Amino acid sequence: MSFRDEFLRLLREDEEFRLAVMGLLGITDIQSSIRQLINAVNELVKTVQRLAEDQEKLWQEVRALREDQNRLWQENKRINENIEKLWQENNRLWEEVKRLADNQERLWQENRSIRRELSGISRTVGALVERDVRHYLPNWVRERFGINVDRLRRARIEGVGEFDGYAEVDNKVIAAEIKATLRLRDVEDFVDKVSKLRSVKASREVIAVIAYVNETRDTGKAIELARANGIKVVKHHGEDDFEELT
């Protein structure tokens, strides 16, 4: 057997010889490096495994985020649909408001028209009431004061004002105010005119009378003011029927 063959046999069969040869050749350091490399590879494998696990977790988070994003998109879509519905409802409400405003304007116009008509009717009724009361009032004056007066005429006294009914008989002056509805301001105005008339007609007895048909909430105060200023107040119930209230 050749030296070569014997050497190879010993390397295969004799472990101590093999280790001795490897030591001589510096293979021990190589094995250490290999072991270190293997350990490093193992650590790298572990690191790769951790990275793979982290990557899987990351993918799970990404999928969760995508699911959240999809939910947000769905919610955003629903919100946009609701906003669109709200805009449609808002437009419908504005149309309704416009229609109501148009109707209100028509109602205001009708109301103004009716008020004008009622005002005209009121003036007409007031004139008719005044004429009717003026026609029958002289009878009450004759019976109440014994003054022979046939007619009370509308008259304007210079420096005093206008009276609905007026007559001068002997040393007496009859001044009358006739109202369809008696209000406090009517008496206030009449009191002022009567005061001026009494100054102008100081030499005569002034008999001041307010005749009315309808009452309002301040008619009671109006009657009290007339009584305090020596003015007779009578309510006309029709024809010769007058009720004296002062």
Q: Would you mind describing this structure in some detail?
A:
There is one protein chain. The chain has 246 residues and is of the alpha/beta class. It has a domain at 128-244: Trna Endonuclease, Chain: A, domain 1 (3-Layer(aba) Sandwich), CATH 3.40.1350. Helices cover 68% and strands 19% of the residues. The chain has five helices and six strands, in the order H-H-H-E-E-E-H-E-H-E-E. It has helices at 3-13, 15-24, 27-145, 184-200, 219-228; strands at 153-157, 161-169, 172-182, 205-215, 232-238, 241-244. It has a six-stranded mixed beta sheet with strand order 1-2-3-4-5-6, with helices on both faces. Helix 1 (3-13) packs across helix 2 and helix 4 (184-200) runs parallel beside helix 5.
Per-chain topology:
Blueprint: H1 3-13, H2 15-24, H3 27-145, E1 153-157, E2 161-169, E3 172-182, H4 184-200, E4 205-215, H5 219-228, E5 232-238, E6 241-244
Parallel strand pairs: 3-4, 4-5
Antiparallel strand pairs: 1-2, 2-3, 5-6
Helix pairs in contact: 1-2, 4-5
